[in-house]
Amino acid sequence: MKKNTNLIISGILLILVLSLQLITDFVTKLTGLDFSAIADQQNNLFIAVSAWVAIIILRRLKTRFLKRYDISQEDNLHSRKVYTQFNILEKVIIFVIIIVAVGLILLSFEGIRKIGVGLFASAGVAGIILGLSAQKVVGALLAGIQIAITQPFRIDDAVVVEGEWGWIEEINLTYVVVRVWDKRRLVLPSSYFLEKPFQNWTRNNADIMGTVFLYTDYNIPFNDLRTELTRLLNASDLWDGKVNVLQVTESKETTVESRILVSARNSPMAWDLRVHIREKMIEYIQINYPDSLPRTRVVIENKATNQPPR
Questions:
Q1: Residue 308: pLDDT above 60?
Q2: Which of 272, 274, 299, 300 could bridge across to 210 with cysteines, CB 3.0–4.6 Å?
Q3: Domain of 17?
Q4: Would you say residue 261 lies in a domain?
């Protein structure tokens, strides 16, 4: 409703501005009076309203087009790709519209126009100064455009950045917002993702594997652990039915390390499945094989000697 209201208001304003210009031109021809000052302000108003209308129409077209793509579905890789491209493309076009509109309005003022001519006359020095002062801003803008084209990540991708695990929530021209698992927001410049490595768990698909490590005594029966793991996975809705592995990955002086590898449809389900399997496997060992829990052995040897104690 609000979007429709904005479009109607902007359309009415545009019609009023055009009507005012026509009336001014008619009065000028009829009376011969000079309304150039008013005409300049009318042109500026027309530019501003036209830019506003263009931005509103652009957003309406984007919203209507994206209705065909539902990112709430489980298999939403293509939808997230389209959302990412159009969101960044929208921001680029809006940025260009605003820059062009502001430039046209400023050029209508005589004083600013003279300053512009002077800047063009010293374009070499001005270019160097602007290049040095705005290189980070321009770099961030170019990085945002490059992310839209290459798409190293998309909206709602699960990523690990700066040691934090979360989802891509917003992709803007100059910065990216990561929604961390505990609902904090990590805001990073767009150039960060082109300069530093990061993990993308859902680059090609949402499927992900999780690991659980168990540390037990040497006398644990591994086949029984595998049987219990299979039973737990079959009874869980979190498991996608693909990966079910238990391997002995390390043997130390006091314990044996067993690694459980399971899979789920997405990263949140993989996390929940990992903690569920870890808890239930520990309970299984506690109830059925309490002697197989990690223990520290102390061997006391009684060596009889003929010497009297001191």
A1: no
A2: 274
A3: 2-122
A4: yes
